[in-house]
Amino acid sequence: MPDYHDDLRLAHVLADAADAVTMDRFKALDLKVETKPDMTPVSEADKAAEELIRGQLQRARPRDAILGEEYGVQGTGPRRWVVDPIDGTKNYVRGVPVWATLIALTEAGEGGYQPVVGVVSAPALGRRWWAAKGHGAFTGRSLTSATRLRVSGVSELSDASFAYSSLTGWEERGLLNGFLDLTREVWRTRAYGDFWPYMMVAEGSVDLCAEPELSLWDMAATAIVVTEAGGTFTGLDGRPGPHSGNAAASNGLLHEELLGYLNERH
Predict the structure, then answer these.
(1) Which CATH number is associated with domain 157-262?
(2) Superfamily assignment of 5-148 in CATH?
(3) I need a surface site. Which of 44, 67, 117, 261 has the fewest CB within 10 A?
(4) What φ, ψ does residue 232 adopt, rounded to 5°?
(5) pLDDT tens string 15-35
(6) pTM value?
């Protein structure tokens, strides 16, 4: 089994650098925010964090390719870093602390590039999560001060906590009724949004979560954390990994039921 320790250590260094940039501008009164063509916001901090990460990667891993939300693909090869400088920009620009930098290393394999290292760093929450393929998932302040993550053992929907981001995406895809049916079956629902529900699935504090529309940079890091914690991460089509343009994550025990409800049309 490959040892990804050096890559994971580098990902932590990158996250440390990004955290310094993003926290410095968080809640800044003069923060500059633009609107991208898809009508989503991008702040100067998004751009600065990605530029910083790219610069450090080019020095530390010059042969590796990079895919980032703000600046696209750079380079080719069997290894590609995938970066979302601020997942949760809408929260960031409003002063809500639920946002994170997502950094993943992916390797070419069957079905496309697959995540092998992931770091999710949420400095405004004081939290960080990470994983490497075959080596487990962890949370803590650093590599040397960490707690191993494990998904829950909840096996009945009536006992399950389900997290999501919003209702509009499900409605736009004609899947709102199935989504609502699921919310009526579970014990509890909460709209935490963005990266956080996936990390709580990995921690075992939430049992199910899903989003109807996502990009690879939204999912690469969270997918490896969930799976290394013993959970299941697929698209709504059931395809494993972060390649379906949407996501469903669970403790594994409830995954087929989750997909059944979320693909239900009326």
Answers:
(1) 3.40.190.80
(2) Fructose-1,6-Bisphosphatase, subunit A, domain 1 (3.30.540.10)
(3) 44
(4) -120, 135
(5) 999 999 999 878 765 667 666
(6) 0.94
